[in-house]
Every structure is written in structure tokens, then in C-alpha cells.
Amino acid sequence: MTDERLLVLLRHGQSEWNLKNLFTGWRDVDLSPAGIEEAKEAGRRMKARGLGFDLAFTSALIRAQRTLSLALGEMGLNGLPEKRDQALNERDYGDLVGLNKDDARKKWGESQVHQWRRSYDIQPPGGESLKDTVARALPYYCQLILPAVLGGKRVLVAAHGNSLRALVMVLDRLTPQAIAALEIATGVPLVYRLNADSTVASKEILNP
Fold this sequence. Notes:
The chain is α/β, with parallel strands linked by helices. The chain has one domain (about 5-205): 3-Layer(aba) Sandwich (Rossmann fold), CATH 3.40.50. It contains 8 helices and 6 strands, in the order E-H-H-E-H-E-H-H-H-E-H-H-E-E. Strand 2, helix 3 (about 60-75) and strand 3 (about 80-85) form a beta-alpha-beta unit. The longest helix is centred in the C-terminal third of the chain and has 21 residues, at about 130-150. It is globular and about 50 Å long. The mean pLDDT is about 95.
């Protein structure tokens, strides 16, 4: 236990479907070879920065779980206590899952697909908006992740672009408009240190 209140957010490495430019959502797709390397490199960067962890959280999906395992392996932290929950899963893209993003643009138009992907509260057919993702990820953060951090545990969260955008929205106090424009890169750790009142004391992005 420490008093540094460390929280690191890590988007999974490139998945096989990221590589193919497909909508993935809750489909359980593994990492690509490049994604495996991204996960390992994230671990090496965190180790070089002198970071250590007491507890990890991840989603119910293999690409996030494997990213966590590979990164921790590079840090010599195999066997770290880990909690898995679908509250941290990627956004459910509904009827778009499995479709190539370019094909979707041809079918529905650039503007409509952009709206489904980037707007805050517009749902794709049969799927979740970012607002819906926030509604499940944020309570999990408030009830499990944040108390661990404020209690002195150093916490790593390995999850997905949209579930992490939900957490960044709260941490960085972003508006729905600002979060809509935010991209979180695969395999790049976001290092937060929190104040005792849960606000952000500092933020560092460990770019390659």
C-alpha cells in the first residue's frame, strides 16, 4: 500500500478486427501480432517509468485480458490480483458488429456512421451509445476502482477505447462534445495520480 494514489488506464493492443477495420464491440476477438507487441511495449514503458501495481481491473473480453497479462509479464508482475467485469467491456455496436467500417459508410453514408461512432448519445442500430457505456462503466469505477486507488492501492485498468473514454471523461472533466472528439491510442498507458478528493493531481501519457 502506498499514498501515491496511482491509476493507469491502458487500452488493449491492436486486435485482429482492428487490423481488418471491423466493428468489434462485445465480439471476443484476440490480439493481432502487432497488438501483442503493443501490450508488451506498454509493460516495458511502465516498468522503465518505475511504476508498480497492487491490483488490476479488466473487461470480460480476451483482448483486454491478454493485454493486461502481457504488460504485467514484462513488468515481472505475473499473478497480480485481477478483477474482470463486463462493465468495462467495449461499447456494443449492435448491428454494426462484424461489418467493415468502409462498407458501413457505403451503406449508410459517411455522416451517419460518423454520428454513430463519435456522438455522445446516438446509438447505432441495436447497440450502445457512448452515454450508455458511461452509464455502466462509471458506477463500476466509483464503486470498485476509485475506492481502491484512494485506499492506497496502485491500480492498472486494461480495457477498451470507449469504456476508457467513459473514465477519462470523468477524470479530465470533459464535456460530451469534448469526449466525442477524444481518441485513446491502443497500447499507450495513461498515468493518473489522484488527490485525496479523487480529482486529478497529474496526468502523463507514456507515448512510444
